[in-house]
Amino acid sequence: MNLGVEFCGVQFKNPVFTASGTFNSGREFADVIDLNQIGAVIVKGVSNKPWKGNVTPRIAETYGGMLNAVGLQNPGIDVFIREDIPFLRQYDTKIIVNIVGRTVDEYVEVALKLANADVDMLELNISCPNIKEGGVAFGVDPNMAELVTREVKKVAKQPLIVKLSPNVTDITKIAKAVERGGADGISLINTLIGMKIDIHKRKTVLGRKTGGLSGPIIKPVAIRMVYQVRQVTKLPIIGVGGIMTGEDAIEFMMAGASAISVGTANLLNPRATMKVLDGIENYMKTYNLLDINKIVGIIE
User: Fold this and answer.
1) Is 190 helix (H, G, I), strand (E, B) or coil?
2) How many C-beta atoms surround the C-beta of residue 175 within 10 A?
3) 270-280 burial by CB neighbour count: b if 16+ within 10 A, else e?
4) Selected catalytic residue, list 128, 183, 229, 240
5) What CATH number is given to the structural domain containing 236?
6) Is 32 a domain residue?
7) Distance (Å, whole) CA 52 – CA 229
8) CA distance 288 to 291
9) Does any domain span residue 121?
10) Residue 128 is among the residues annotated as catalytic for this protein
11) Number of structural domains the chain divides into
């Protein structure tokens, strides 16, 4: 039974990755799961300088998922290189670094610092607001998405995955834009935008009013977008959004994803990645599937 997958020319032992934002550097999970069993760890977003994040409250539970407005708080790329890479290199897993920025130059700076670092791939988070464009997120405008992808690709030494925002009218236009910009792969989806109101206090639950909606509630949207993007590009896809079980992962792969990322499920069950991996293996045994790659994109 073959669980191994190739993604952007990199070999992975299996298609189960962690999703950025729910798996900082892996330290918080190392005592409860075997990081050696995960195909890849996609770390929390890393910026050129430390980011403080948003005002509290930052997290809110909602029907079928959760809202978060953490604001990509992180200690910055220098701390990541000094402390987190050596920690993760203790384990037999790939390292994918999610990079964030508020301007093109900030993204490029992070990619430059990672150029000679011991990491396997980069994941470009283009849902960040471009402060030079009045707060418009790079990922909602095809021209901006193509621009930031192209500029980061110029300096990136590792394969570049671009993580797409679902908060657009036509996801295929953004996918084709980042392909033109030189992306090696695509990750989708990022969180949807949502809001929750406390009707007793008559105020929003999150300090920032709106936040990113994740969890099982967004899975049908994510499946649909993976399927749509698969139809318009040959770039390999990482499917993410509400994956809780192995069956969820199989659904994403049938829609067109070559690998999947487990996110919010980690916050509910620290062993969620192991549960998903076991579920994939059980599915393969049940249907006598010898190679996981055989089901990728089989839905016409």
Assistant:
1) coil
2) 26
3) eebbbbbbebb
4) 128
5) 3.20.20.70
6) yes
7) 34
8) 9
9) yes
10) yes
11) 1
